[in-house]
Design brief:
Mean pLDDT: 79
Membrane topology: Multi-pass membrane protein
Organism: Ectocarpus siliculosus (Brown alga)
Largest sheet: none
Radius of gyration: 21 Å
Number of domains: 1
Shape: globular
Protein name: EamA domain-containing protein
Low-confidence stretches: 1-12, 77-101
Subcellular location: Cell membrane
Helix content: over 70%
Number of helices: 15
Pfam families: EamA
């Protein structure tokens, strides 16, 4: 009985992060077409991103590190554990930045982590927005998720990490699929360049998130990350107004007109997905998570077709199939490792 119960616990705890990251990827797939719709209305990317991340930061403001010390963590809110084990929760919070504030040292560490992640996130979304103004939503999504190939490369080069053969194979297959998806018959353009830069910064975000998500409370880490990103987007918006001459009143009217779309980006594809990503990557390695994220352009192509009427040719359909196969294979390998853990637990308790 013991081995079955503990084995079921291992399986459930391993399936949840994978489910979270797959849900994140599906939701991300919607944002490319939504951003394209907003930019088609001539709303500046800096102002758009400032509104997006500003709203998202406000949503997570109760979990701002070191500010509201008695705010329960999101998992406690979801499971009804608010107020249970206050002393123990406080001790854990002091150790890892979780629970309700966790002390000055934990808050400072969370802010340092959030600052670095915020820079990478800002650059990624800034480059993505610029690229989307110069190329199609589906093509931008395909190029952006070159990060699937860059994450294991950066992990190998920058951290000396040993990357498993299946992960390299999955990354290569995803690369081949991306090449096919982006081969839509049009020559490369400046938007492609910005999309590739977005891929590189996104890869660094995924890699660094793995480092910090294990030691910081996901809710507080997400809050710090969003505040830093919102501040940088605010500076970008100010530059657009003062240097590029963007009209403030017209920008505000544009935000009001696009409020439903901007609200969706802020609440669903920023605040919610950032938190889910931070939770999921606590137990899923960055290079493995990147393979899951490779499904983003496949989902993006579907939503681009539904919302914008963009279509894929035969090569693009083949590429989508290859990426899907690589993602499913990678997740299958992870589940094989979970089964191995179950077997070891069972052997230990017999």
């Amino acid at each position: 009985m013991t081995d079955r119960v503990e084995g079921a616990g291992i399986e459930a705890s391993s399936l949840l992060p994978l489910a979270l990251l797959n849900t994140v990827t599906l939701l991300w797939g919607t944002q490319h077409a939504v951003i394209k719709l907003i930019l088609q209305e001539d709303l500046s990317p800096g102002v758009t991103n400032f509104a997006r991340f500003g709203i998202a930061a406000l949503i997570f403001s109760p979990w701002t590190p070191g500010v509201l010390r008695d705010t329960p963590s999101i998992p406690d809110l979801l499971t009804g554990q608010v107020g249970v084990g206050d002393k123990e929760g406080g001790e854990l919070g002091a150790a890892d930045g979780g629970g309700g504030g966790g002390g000055a040292a934990a808050a400072a560490e969370t802010w340092r982590a959030g600052a670095e992640l915020g820079v990478w996130m800002f650059l990624g979304f800034a480059f993505q927005s610029i690229g989307l103004g110069l190329t199609t939503a589906s093509r931008s999504a395909f190029l952006l998720y070159l990060n699937v190939k860059l994450v294991p490369f950066f992990a190998f080069v920058l951290e000396g990490r040993r990357i498993s053969t299946p992960t390299w194979i999955s990354a290569f297959l995803a690369f081949v699929g991306t090449v096919l998806l982006s081969s839509d018959g049009t020559p490369p353009n400046l938007g492609d360049f910005w999309s590739v830069l977005a891929a590189a910064t996104s890869a660094m975000f995924i890699l660094r998130l793995e480092k910090y998500s294990g030691s910081c409370d996901p809710s507080q880490l997400n809050s710090a990350n969003l505040w830093i990103t919102a501040g940088l987007c605010g500076a970008w918006a100010a530059w657009e107004v003062t240097v590029r001459g963007v009209d403030v009143s017209m920008a505000l009217e544009g935000i009001q007109a696009q409020a439903p779309l901007i609200g969706y980006l802020a609440v669903v594809t920023t605040a919610l997905t950032n938190w889910m990503q931070a939770v999921g990557q606590r137990s899923v390695p960055a290079e493995r998570a990147a393979i899951i994220y490779a499904m983003d352009p496949v989902y993006a192509a579907g939503f681009a077709y539904l919302l914008l009427g963009e279509t894929l040719g035969p090569a693009g359909l083949v590429g989508a199939g290859i990426i899907t196969g690589a993602a499913l294979w990678s997740q299958g390998k992870q589940m094989e490792e979970v089964d191995g853990d179950e077997d070891r637990v069972g052997d230990k308790d017999v």
